[in-house]
Write a structure and sequence with these properties.
Keywords: Cytoplasm, GTP-binding, Hydrolase, Initiation factor, Metal-binding, Nucleotide-binding, Protein biosynthesis. This protein is an alpha/beta fold. It has 12 helices and 21 strands. Bound molecules: guanosine-5'-triphosphate, magnesium ion (MG) and sodium ion (NA).
Amino acid sequence: SCGIDRELRAPICCILGHVDAGKTKLLDCIRRSNVQGGEAGGITQQIGATYLPVQNIRERTSLKAEATIKVPGLLVIDTPGHQSFRNMRIRGSSLCDVAVVVVDITRGRGLENQTIESLDLLKHRNVRFVVALNKVDRLYGWKTCPNAPIAKALKNQSDDVRSEFKWRVTEVVTQLKENGLNAALYYENKKIKEVVNIVPTSSVSAEGIPDLLLLLVRWVLEIMMERLTYVNNVECTVLEVNEDKDFGTTIDVVLINGALRKGDQIVVCTKQGPVTTNIRYLLTPYPMKELKAKGVYKHHEELKAAQGVKIAVRGLRHAIPGTTLIVVKPGDDLEQAEAAAVQEINKANSLVNEDESCESDDGTAIQEMSRIKTCKEGVYVQASSIGTLEAIIEHLKSLSFDIPVSGCNLGPVHKQDVMKATAMLKRKEEYAAILAFDVKVMPEAFDLAAESGVKIFVADTVYKLVDSFTGHIKKLKE
Ligand code: GTP
Ligand code: MG
Ligand code: NA
């Protein structure tokens, strides 16, 4: 506007909402992918990021050639809806510019728990959002109109379908109102800067998808042009820490502004303090592909915001998700950067201490990752990422009988992990167990476990994993 040509970065949009509202399916519909179909138990258990280039958005919105979209694309963050994954919803809502709250139009009687939780998180962070009122194709008698704008799709429906649609929308508007929010169907909304826009969608037949994309890329500019202006100062947040079989420990980050280069000196916040190192590999998935998918990555020399990026560094295992990644440019003061990292770490620690539930075991620094607290007596947990470790521990804590954790680790289960778990054989035998999620168990580890009496539990969802362990405990007690 004002005739000034500014370079814009892609807005970062977090997808939030209750279990099975259709968050992942909505992204699948936009990406023309099938991530949801590959998820164990049909549930999302890992935060993800996908870059949608402007060409794809143009194509989906069937815009006339001369119509402009000013942003270069959208970076979308998918989050899990299950209760134990609140950590990932907090992370997503903390680093996004805007959000989409997905609500299932077929669910009546009040907003669901994680919908309300999502609305609270967004309010707390002052994040603006739209509501995708999803699954319109499930209204009784709906005639599908693939990819149609919602107005066109509604015109094609019978009076009965249209009136059911209308009362369900009214219902959701009322429920939002009860949660202190004014909302309206976006095409009836006269105050799009104040009143929350509702976009009806289907993630199966794609009605309303053009509307949602177009609204997002235009509305963000009306409400935050300044914030979306590209600047050189790096703003970058750690999203997740993974063990990758090719690259070792990797850090998934969201580059919010500025640029990263291969070889850049960085200061990473870890539980043991700031660690200064260099970017060894700078990787992204291909456009329209998930960052979290264990797939093929593109190598880069330089990347400009906004992007979801996988960074490989040597010898770094304990970066704290949610903290800032600091880039030290030539001429920058390294000491100052490290001091800033110390502040970040203190902030992250104070968040952990808020809900501390058991005494930590000091001698074992390796177990102290992120929001994770360990006890002297407890089970050993192993997972592929810090976020899922946290979710498992969160779920263990939420049980009616508390199951404490004595230690945890990232990546495949090795003999050394079993050795650590054997310590419980003498202390508290029922806890001599490894709960392994989404990681390989090495054959030597299995052998040692069988010999020593340590039980290894493996499952593809956090819930099944904990269930199989609690089932075992119950049997022991009988
Ligand atoms: P979590 O990640 O587990 O919180 O769920 P989610 O919100 O990502 O929902 P997901 O994409 O896993 O969809 C849940 C179920 O609803 C799946 O069986 C989908 O196929 C189905 N579904 C999602 N969106 C739609 C839709 O628009 N129409 C219909 N008919 N089914 C849908
Ligand atoms: Mg999902
Ligand atoms: Na699901």
